[in-house]
Design a protein that fits this description.
Blueprint: H1 5-10, H2 36-43, H3 59-72, E1 76-80, H4 83-94, E2 100-104, H5 109-118, E3 125-129, H6 134-140, E4 145-151, H7 163-172, E5 176-180, E6 197-201, E7 215-219, H8 221-228, H9 234-238, H10 244-254, H11 257-277, E8 281-283, H12 293-299, E9 309-313, H13 317-329, E10 334-335, E11 345-348, H14 359-364, E12 371-375, H15 382-395
Parallel strand pairs: 2-3, 2-4, 4-5, 5-6, 10-11
Antiparallel strand pairs: 1-7, 6-7, 8-9, 9-12, 11-12
Helix pairs in contact: 3-10
Bound molecules: pyridoxal-5'-phosphate.
Pyridoxal-5'-phosphate binds near residues 151, 183, 201, 204 and 215.
Length: about 400
């Protein structure tokens, strides 16, 4: 295994059932056994290489899982029908009634809603903490804490988790560090930095074409086996399974991820620097003034840069909406949630992807109404894009003058 994530994907070799360069797509929900005894062994989890039923595993899903495990330097992985399916089954596998979670307070809105509103029904309590304060994280740990949960780059504030330091704390208390790495595939390798479980929403950069929802949990063979266990595995019993056809198509897109990530990052870096010079309130981990810039550099796989996501605070939600509508009208991107598309996507975080977070908590964590989250696209001529964005910003009064007229 190489220590470079894209090499590990490149190094996988496929000889399909008929010699195809892509593995054949498995098209079955159930599988035959030549001997009844093997079926029993498979149920008990002992028959390597045998398939039972596609909610448990299927050849196409295993191919995709192995490629993602190679990318994340983990023993194996389990793909699921959505990022939320991966997150919720991981949390419910690790935690039960009476357990406690220490979570970053700036996480994906769906995950926040799950921990805040749903898991309390099972008597699982969560403390939401500022992930950049290691003291607060450690202080929040109680004897019933089972995991520290956070995103490598937080959504939407783009705070950076100090993964090696968090892993040290987790190990000290013998609890799990679970990282959602959706914003930074290839850029950061959480398991290599000490995390125990790495999760992705495949819906975003990894698939990159916005034609499907998907997720993955990457971890040890033991943990993935426990997720798939027919008797008490959350992935098996809750059933967030991915369809084989989709797994095959995501695997094909994964192979160009390294090229796309470099372009997303260099385009975002270019725009962030320009916006900064223009005096706009831009947040991007690749800017020297970003408070976690040096921390990010101490962890990242340098060739992929600082990622495709930046935020711009234009003051009010009205201004944000006006600007986004104009940019969409001028075909600079889409007013849409999600990220990792070939076109730029923008949304006002406070009223969309983070709307599950109550307004007063949004204010407390520094989530202003006027924040627009941009997922920068693969634009070939980013200078042209910048000029056109600049024009829109001048037109709505976010910028005073248009230097390009
Ligand atoms: C989108 C997203 C999710 C949820 O993934 P789905 O595929 O939509 O279920 C979780 N975490 C982060 C950081 C995301 O951006």
């Amino acid at each position: 295994m190489s220590n470079k994530p894209a090499n590990n994907i490149q190094d996988l070799q496929y000889f399909g059932e008929f010699g195809g360069v892509n593995p054949s797509i498995s098209d079955s929900a159930t599988y035959t056994f030549l001997h009844a005894k093997t079926m029993l062994d498979t149920f008990e989890g002992h028959a390597e290489g045998c398939y039972l039923y596609s909610r448990h595993s299927s050849p196409s899903n295993l191919y995709l899982g192995e490629a993602l495990a190679a990318m994340e330097f983990t023993e194996t992985a389990n793909v699921s029908g959505s990022g939320m399916g991966a997150i919720t089954s991981t949390i419910l596998q690790i935690c039960g009634a009476g357990d406690h979670i220490v979570s970053s307070r700036t996480i994906y809105g769906g995950t926040y809603a799950f921990l805040k509103n749903f898991t309390p029904k099972f008597n699982i309590e969560t403390s939401f903490v500022d992930i950049t304060s290691l003291e607060k994280i450690e202080a929040a740990i109680t004897p019933t804490t089972k995991m520290i949960y956070c995103e490598s780059i937080s959504n939407p504030l783009l705070e950076i988790a100090n993964i090696p330091a968090l892993a040290k704390i987790a190990n000290k208390y013998n609890i799990k560090l679970v990282i959602d790495n959706t914003f930074s595939p290839l850029m950061l390798s959480p398991n290599k930095l000490g995390a125990h479980v790495t999760i992705h929403s495949l819906t975003k950069f990894i698939n990159g074409t916005n034609d499907t929802i998907g997720g993955v949990v990457c971890g040890t063979q033991d943990f993935i086996n426990s997720l798939r266990n027919v008797n008490d595995g959350a992935a098996m019993l809750l059933g967030p399974v991915m369809d084989s056809l989709r797994a095959a198509s995501i695997l094909k897109n994964l192979r160009t991820l390294h090229i796309r990530m470099k372009k997303h990052s260099s385009n975002a870096q270019f725009l962030a620097e320009k916006f900064e010079k223009d005096g706009l309130k831009v947040v991007y981990p690749g800017l020297k003034k970003h408070k976690d810039h040096e921390l990010f550099k101490s962890m990242y796989n340098e060739e992929y840069g600082f990622g495709g996501i930046l935020t711009l605070d234009v003051g009010t939600v009205e201004k944000a909406n006006e600007l986004m509508e104009l940019m969409q009208h001028n075909n600079l991107g889409y007013l849409a949630v999600s990220l990792g598309f070939y076109k730029t996507l923008f949304s006002a975080s406070g009223t969309s992807t983070s709307s599950e977070i109550p307004h007063e908590e949004q204010v407390e964590m520094g989530l202003s109404d006027g924040i627009i989250r941009f997922s920068i696209g693969l634009d070939n001529d980013i200078e042209r894009t910048y000029r056109a964005m600049h024009k829109c910003m001048t037109q709505v009064g976010v910028l005073k003058e248009n230097i390009y007229i």
